[in-house]
Amino acid sequence: LRLVDSGGGVVQVGGSLTLSCGTTGIAARHYPLKDYAFGWFRQAPGKGSEEVSCINGFNEGARYAPSVEGRFAISRNKAKNTVLLHMSDLKPEDTGVYYCAQDIRTIYGACPEDFGTWGQGTQVTVGA
After folding, report:
1. Which helix (H) or strand (E) segment is 30 a member of?
2. pLDDT per residue over 77-92, tens digit each?
3. Residue 56 pLDDT
4. CB 27 within 8 A of CB 21
5. Are 38 and 100 in contact (CB under 8 A)?
6. What is the C-alpha R_g of the chain?
7. Distance CA 109, CA 98 (A)
8. Across 1-128, where does the E strand assignment appear?
9. Who's near 38: CB < 8 A, 6+ residues apart?
10. In this predicted model, what pLDDT tens digit does every residue of 64-74 receive, in sequence order?
11. Is residue 33 a contact partner of residue 22, using CB atoms and an 8 Å limit?
12. Exposure b/e, 94-109, CB count within 10 A at least 16 = b
């Protein structure tokens, strides 16, 4: 199973970006993103990894880090088998490498404390 995340870039303060993550090939059929908990994490320069958001695998319920609440939104595009992170009102402290993650251990599961499958990361840079 391999996750592919994309959509990062350079954006001005106050701008918006949408990140996308999906699976390819046989994995997309065996582990459809709509049925499993899915998360977005980020790592800022010199800092540890931080969970930004997670969407569960049973009722689309989501949780957000306090630092992004009200500015970021996680959603699924079931037709394309992708999970999106819509980011708005971006701030310099949102800069970092963003990773998507999927928990394939439990179908229709809640957001876990840890994930086993990760994307390769996409860089988001927010500048003045």
Report:
1. helix 26-30
2. 888 889 999 999 999 9
3. 95
4. no
5. yes
6. 14
7. 23
8. 3-6, 9-12, 17-23, 38-43, 49-55, 62-64, 72-77, 82-87, 96-102, 117-118, 122-127
9. 21, 54, 55, 57, 74, 76, 83, 100, 101, 102, 103
10. 999 999 999 99
11. yes
12. bbbbbbbbbbbeeeee
Tokens 């957000």 map to which residue?
A: 64
Residue 68 is predicted with a pLDDT of 98
SS3 12: strand
Query: Which tokens go with 85?
Result: 């992170």
Q: Give the tokens for residue 81.
A: 């088998």
Place of tokens 């800022």: 44
> What's the residue count for the chain?
128
Q: Tell me: the pLDDT tens digits for 93-103?
A: 999 999 999 99
Tell me how far CA of residue 96 lies from CA of 11, 22, 77, 118, in angstroms. Answer: 12, 20, 24, 16
